[in-house]
Amino acid sequence: MKKINFLNTFKYSSSNIVNTSKNKKCLKNFCMVKNFSSVHVDRNDDTFFKSIKDWWDVNGTMRTLHEYNDVRIKYLKNQLTQEFTGALFENKISNQGVGNSMPFKKLNMLDVGCGGGILCESLARLGADIIGIDSNANSFNIASAHLNNYEGDELKYMQGKLKYYNGSTDNYIEDARKSDRHIKQFDVVLAMEVIEHVNSPELFAKDLSTLTKDGGYLFISTINKTNISYYGMIVAGEKLFGIVPEGTHDWNKFIKPEKLIQILKENGYCLKNLSGVSYNPITGHMDLSSDLSMNYILFAKKLSR
Ligand SMILES: C[S@@+](CC[C@H](N)C(=O)[O-])C[C@H]1O[C@@H](n2cnc3c(N)ncnc32)[C@H](O)[C@@H]1O
């Protein structure tokens, strides 16, 4: 039988972060997360994400995220290696290249809205030290259970690299402040398919900036606000073909890249790259593309103040 342990799961409480490995009660509380409030969390979206049970089924509800994962890993590798070539990032990255199996070794990363942990686990395997945070108890529980379901050396390696936290960015920052801890800033912050779910992209971007080191990097992937994305994502993707479950998205919360780039600029970032992401509904294939009308991904650098 597979061993479940709780070493690497952190859960948000109103007063502090509880390391569940030290608290036996948490074993039975594993699926119970206390109520907390976050300015960023849209309650409708939160209810929706509670219903997802099959995050890790590559043919299930989240199949497009699984398909997308290889594309974003390719994008991350390309962007970060280009950035680090020539100018080493505070000796964080050596002469590792795209071909290296651990290109992200020594980089600290924060994956905001990590969901069931698909991206976090891939990044940990590529060498990153990563914290995945998600405001949804169901997403957090699924991510934690999947991590803790490894065995032997793999379990040890993954637990050494990856930790999860239940809460949003404001809870995470507040927790650090309350416990007088220094707010940890990360080399790389990621928010993949999340900003279209938050209440205010402006407030959310402010927190992302607080959590990014000066000279560090940010990746955001999201959906453009266009007529094409309305018909493609909402009408065809959700209602006609069920590529993603109905109710996943609210078109009003989609954001144009120009607007997002402006918000990021106001929070100290400069854009390094912007790419479209294409999706073939027949084959299910996704790839980077020059077409920004639906999905896009961007890479930005936080300038030193
Ligand atoms: C579409 S999923 C994306 C999951 C993951 N980033 C990926 O791409 O594989 C969105 C996730 O973001 C989480 N989320 C939504 N709003 C959030 C917020 N304000 N703070 C943290 N997580 C949030 C949801 O609970 C959900 O798990």
What does this structure look like?
It contains 10 helices and 10 strands. The chain is of the alpha/beta class and 305 residues long. The longest helix is centred in the first third of the chain and has 22 residues, at 63-84. Mean pLDDT is 84; it is low at 1-8, 10-32, 86-91 and 94-99. Strands 2-1-5-4-3-6-7-10-8-9 form a 10-stranded mixed sheet, sandwiched between helices. It has one domain (42-302): 3-Layer(aba) Sandwich (Rossmann fold), CATH 3.40.50. The chain has helices spanning 25-29, 43-50, 63-84, 118-125, 137-148, 152-161, 169-178, 201-210, 227-240, 257-266; strands spanning 9-12, 17-19, 108-112, 129-134, 162-166, 186-192, 212-223, 269-279, 286-289, 295-302. Bound molecules: S-adenosylmethionine. S-adenosylmethionine binds at residues 38, 40-41, 45, 49, 65, 112-115, 118-119, 134-136, 139, 168, 192-194, 197-198.
Assigned CATH class: Alpha Beta
Distance between the termini: 52 Å
Report the C-alpha radius of gyration, rounded: 19 Å
Shape: globular
Question: How much helicity do the residues have?
Answer: 25-40%
**Largest pleated sheet:** 10 strands, mixed
Number of strands: 10
Q: Strand order across the biggest sheet?
A: 2-1-5-4-3-6-7-10-8-9
- State the CATH topology: Rossmann fold
Please state the second-level CATH architecture: 3-Layer(aba) Sandwich
Q: How many structurally independent domains?
A: 1
Can you tell me the CATH superfamily? Vaccinia Virus protein VP39
